[in-house]
Amino acid sequence: MAKAKSNKKEERKKATLGHFDHDAFLQQISKRIKTLRKQKGFKSYELFAYDIEVSRAGMSKYEAGTFDDIRMRTLLKIIDGLGISPKEFFSEGFL
């Protein structure tokens, strides 16, 4: 006996938002950048930005938390400039 083919479509899984506060997360990134920069001995955000080839205006916004978005490549430059890995960067305060 042949099995009848079902015409029912399987319901797809839908992604949802609201699992965490995006703005609060960006603020955590901002605080982490500034704290680590100072801990690593970089006294001036301007010179640090120059060294890692990020705009001074952008770096100011990233540290002040007055940005809406940050490019992944820029964040990776900042993390690399701090001499740490992404895992180390996100190890504290991002639980």
Strand content: under 5%
Q: Can you give the helix content as a percent range?
A: 40-55%
Radius of gyration: 21 Å
Q: Span between N and C termini?
A: 55 Å
Query: What are the segments in which pLDDT stays under 50 over at least 5 consecutive residues?
Result: none
How many H/I helices? 5
What's the main sheet like? none
| Oligomeric composition of the shown chains | single chain
Sheet/helix structural class: mainly alpha
> In total, how many beta strands?
0
- Overall outline: elongated
Mean pLDDT comes to 92
Order of helices and strands: HHHHH
Overall description:
The protein is an all-alpha fold and 95 residues long. It has helices at 22-39, 45-52, 56-64, 72-81, 86-89.
Detail the topology: elements first, then pairings:
Blueprint: H1 22-39, H2 45-52, H3 56-64, H4 72-81, H5 86-89
Overview in brief:
The protein has five helices and no strands.
What attributes characterize this protein structure?
elongated; mainly alpha; 95 residues; 5 helices
